[in-house]
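queue> holo job accepted (nicotinamide-adenine-dinucleotide)
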Amino acid sequence: MAAARRATMEENLERAVRLLRAARSAVALTGAGLSTESGIPDFRSPGGVWERFRPVEYQELLASHAARREHWRYKQATVPPMLAAKPNAAHVALAELEAAGRLRGVITQNIDALHQRAGSRRVLELHGTNLEAVCLQCDERVGIAAALAQLEAGHDVPSCGRCGGWLKPATVSFGQSLPAEVLREAATLAQQADGFLALGSSLLVNPAAALAGLAKRSGAVLIIVNLSETPYDEVADAVVRAKLAEVLPRLAAAVLAP
Ligand code: NAD
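queue> job finished
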């Protein structure tokens, strides 16, 4: 008996379009892969940041000034290029789907604020943002430019203008809990969704990745667009292996076509 033919990328894309057209409360989860075509490298690919810097744990940031200094050196190298990056066609496609009432919101693992800059309105940032810093002592938040300016002025770690405590970038560090309120809202969206798009995420980092499973168990169709395999491919209803900035505008145009 001849082996069943594997569906082509075009056929998988058509399937994704059909599923998303039928959805009434779709939600997207996005990862670093959505921004690689804006020139921001993801973490795990060759040439990614972990080849140049080691991740600093939250407990180390609280306990050690050397760790705080090391973390800010990493941010000093990676934040300015991120701020200079522009949203790509995939970010714009998601904003268009939301504006047309075809997407209830974007849950993102990204910290680059490119969804908001592309026009997305409801963006749940699971891992915080690189646009701000937060005081480790009093929780005061300041713009990242003010924190970086302190580094430029010769401070090795920026400090809080209100209480003098050490500032930390407002991203979620390894070993730090995700913002509870944001995670709760994301879980509710995933549970209520009838369509769940997992885009540019390796779906290896929990609890973000687990939202795909939660949505699927709660009855959503699961559509994955990612260049590499994910642990959720087997349970997904459509898997499109393609570059997001190329494929998402086509997906959105087909879903929005009359
Ligand atoms: P990841 O690096 O683990 O996975 C990214 C995935 O995207 C990979 O599976 C890769 O195959 C895929 N990919 C890369 N380019 C793609 C493209 N053009 N089209 C389709 N797929 C593409 O990233 P992650 O799972 O999102 O988790 C890493 C964590 O690192 C995130 O939680 C985030 O907090 C942080 N991070 C954020 C940014 C950002 O804000 N832009 C960048 C790097 C890392």
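queue> The longest helix spans residues 65-84.
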